Amino acid sequence: MPVTSARRIQVAQQFVRFGFGEHVDENAPFYSADFLTQELTTTEVQAVLSIVPRYNAFSGVNVAGGTERFRGRVRGWKFGRSASAPILVVTLPDWSHQAEEQPLGAPLGRPIDEGQHAAIVAELQDTFEHQLDAHRFGPHPSWGNAYAAWWA
What we know:
Layout: H1 6-20, E1 35-36, H2 42-49, H3 60-67, E2 76-82, E3 85-91, H4 114-131, E4 136-139, E5 146-150
Antiparallel strand pairs: 1-2, 2-3, 3-5, 4-5
């Protein structure tokens, strides 16, 4: 469960600049077709998403705005490229104390039941596919409670 850090924002922004290369800087000498940041908070991912102004249907500023409604309800976010296209992975907490911005040593929370998970997954899918023009949204193989939005 990440906690926002100004230093992490700077490093993650540079990482994304390198990864998206020519889509951020037309003079970039290289890029990566496949990469993901480490898990970021909503604040951190919003700063990172805005680095990529547009990539086909992906609009970094719009997607950053779309993540706001999930602040405090997710464990974290990972952003990058998969097969050259933007991907945003969201990880969901199993327990309430595992949500983003909870400091290490926070009191033990309560388990998050399947119904609550299903509701937020449905809300995420609607947000990314219908409001933010993601090509698809679904489970991501990185972790049991990870889901991803892919843009073509």
